[in-house]
Design goal:
Blueprint lengths: L2 H9 L2 H5 L6 H10 L4 H10 L3 H8 L3 H9 L6 H21 L2 H8 L11 H4 L3 H15 L5
Helix pairs in contact: 1-7, 4-6, 4-7, 5-6, 7-8, 7-10
């Protein structure tokens, strides 16, 4: 298990959510597919430094719906769980590449030349946008002109 995946697991709730040690990406896929607990919304919000409105937009619901989801007793849907995972994985990658959590949070909110002056956080609501942010972070990591 890579340090990157361990960071993702910790942000999503750690051993409590994942039922013990996570040994592979398949363990993560199983838990996300079964649905994360509603507490993950608040944990992700705090770890990534997002507002409730930003989390709601990233998972594709209204702020009011997100508030209801956070209070429910059943797990989040696989779709919402997957969207949360997507945000966390990009934040963890940015933190790893940029080597600082605060800088990663700031970077995600700042227009980036390599994204056509678009804000990375604004692109995370789609898989295609997420892949572009991931690609830019990879280019930064390997020193490719962006």
């Amino acid at each position: 298990m890579t340090a990157f995946n361990l960071e993702v697991v910790q942000i999503l709730g750690g051993a409590e959510v994942f039922g013990g040690d996570v040994h592979s990406q398949l363990n993560i896929a199983d838990v996300v597919g079964a649905g994360l607990p509603p507490s993950s919304l608040g944990i992700v919000k705090g770890a990534v430094g997002l507002t409730s409105a930003e989390v709601a937009e990233l998972i594709g619901v209204t702020t009011r719906t997100m508030s209801r989801l956070a209070k429910q007793s059943r797990v989040l849907s696989p779709v919402v769980s997957d969207r949360l995972y997507r945000v966390v994985s990009i934040y963890a990658l940015a933190k790893d590449v940029l080597e600082d959590g605060d800088f990663a949070r700031e970077w995600l909110r700042t227009p980036q030349y390599g994204l056509g002056q678009r804000v990375p956080l604004d692109l995370l609501n789609t898989e295609a946008g997420t892949r572009e942010v991931e690609s830019l972070l990879s280019r930064i990591e390997y020193g490719v002109l962006t």
